[in-house]
Structure formats: structure tokens, C-alpha cells
Write a structure and sequence with these properties.
Blueprint (H helix, E strand, L loop, with lengths): L1 E3 L10 E5 L7 E7 L5 E7 L5 E2 L3 H37 L1 E2 L2 E2 L4 H26 L4 H26 L9 H14 L4 H12 L1
Antiparallel strand pairs: 1-2, 2-5, 3-4, 6-7
């Protein structure tokens, strides 16, 4: 857990990280489900004792960029899976006697999504190869978050109503992308962070 011992509430100075045993007296835990079905935990502490951890807020903030890179990598993987599944659906699903993937408007949209997927992959690799560069990481997270949501929405739309059912992976991938895209900052907040870092 983190606690402020000094400094301003809007800064990281004075923040200390504490190690608290899971069975500590006064520790209250409440679990709940996130949009993708994964489990999250809310902690409430009532006069709980803990031991300070080395590194403080700086160590915690350093781990955030590593988490952002991991989220970007997972989003790119899900994007590729959704794209491939949707491409197969468009080749086999027929309407008016021909595959729906033969319609030019759908081909244009899939071409656009393919370009976004490959651009996202490039952003992710650049950020992963420069782990000490917060500007590259913020730029990657901003771009991939927005692009992944758009791709997932198109994939759901191409599948119609069954795209959001539990029987298909499309809806599951979409929900996971929604969670990862907002983890530690959505596209807009990461874009603002990128602008600040790039000055």
C-alpha cells in the first residue's frame, strides 16, 4: 500500500510504500469483477501496521511504464487475434449469395484496420526496445489504446449480434481491450503525458 507522510497531495514527494501482511488485523478486502471478467480487489485499512519498502514512490512509478509496455503488447496480440478471426468470418459468411468480405466498403475498413494493427505493433516494439524512454511509452500507449478500441469495435460490428455473445472470442477480446486501454491512463491522458514529456 502507499501512504503520504509529507509533501503536497498532488505530487509524489513524501509518498512511502508499505508492506502489509495479507492477514493483518484491521485489513478489509472486497473483491469485484472488472469488465473483462477478471478479479480486482479493494483494500480498506483500519489502524493497520506495515513495514516501509525501499524505493518509495519512485520505484512504484518506474514499474508503471513497464506495466504500460505489457498492456500495449497484450493489446497488439488481441488485435491480431480479433483481426484474423474477423477476416476468416468475412471470407465464409455469405450475404446476397456471396461472402460479405467481397463487398468493397468492408474491404476498405479491413485494410484500414490492418494498417492500424501494424502501426500499433511498430509503436509497441519501439517502446519495448526503449524501456527507459517514457515519451516513447506514452506515445505507444496513447496510439495503441485508441486504435485497439476502434479495431475491436469494427470486429464486433462485422460479426453482428453474435459478436458480443460468450460463444465467440470477439466479445471477450473487446472487453479485455477496453480494460487494458484505460489501465494507468486512457488514450487522451497518455497523449497529454506524451506532449508534456516531449517538450
Amino acid at each position: 500500500m502507499s501512504a503520504r507522510e509529507s509533501g503536497r497531495p498532488d505530487g509524489t514527494e513524501g509518498l512511502t510504500l508499505w508492506l502489509v501482511p495479507a492477514d493483518a488485523v484491521g485489513l478489509e478486502r472486497q473483491t469485484y469483477r472488472l469488465v473483462d471478467g477478471s478479479v480486482a480487489l479493494e483494500l480498506r485499512l483500519h489502524d493497520v501496521e506495515g513495514e516501509p519498502l525501499e524505493g518509495g514512490a519512485a520505484a512504484l512509478l518506474a514499474s508503471f511504464d513497464e506495466t504500460r509496455i505489457a498492456a500495449c503488447a497484450e493489446m497488439v496480440g488481441i488485435m491480431a487475434m480479433l483481426f484474423d478471426a474477423t477476416l476468416e468470418h468475412l471470407r465464409t459468411r455469405k450475404q446476397f449469395g456471396q461472402p460479405i468480405g467481397s463487398f468493397q466498403a468492408i474491404q476498405h475498413r479491413m485494410a484500414y484496420q490492418y494498417a492500424g494493427l501494424e502501426q500499433s505493433r511498430s509503436h509497441m516494439l519501439r517502446a519495448a526496445l526503449r524501456p527507459g524512454d517514457p515519451t516513447a511509452i506514452a506515445g505507444a500507449k496513447a496510439f495503441i489504446s485508441a486504435t485497439a478500441i476502434k479495431l475491436a469495435e469494427d470486429c464486433v460490428q462485422f460479426h453482428g449480434g453474435m459478436g458480443v455473445t460468450d460463444e465467440l472470442v470477439i466479445g471477450h477480446g473487446y472487453k479485455r481491450i477496453l480494460l487494458l486501454a484505460s489501465l494507468l491512463g486512457d488514450s487522451e491522458s497518455e497523449l497529454r503525458r506524451y506532449v508534456e514529456l516531449a517538450r
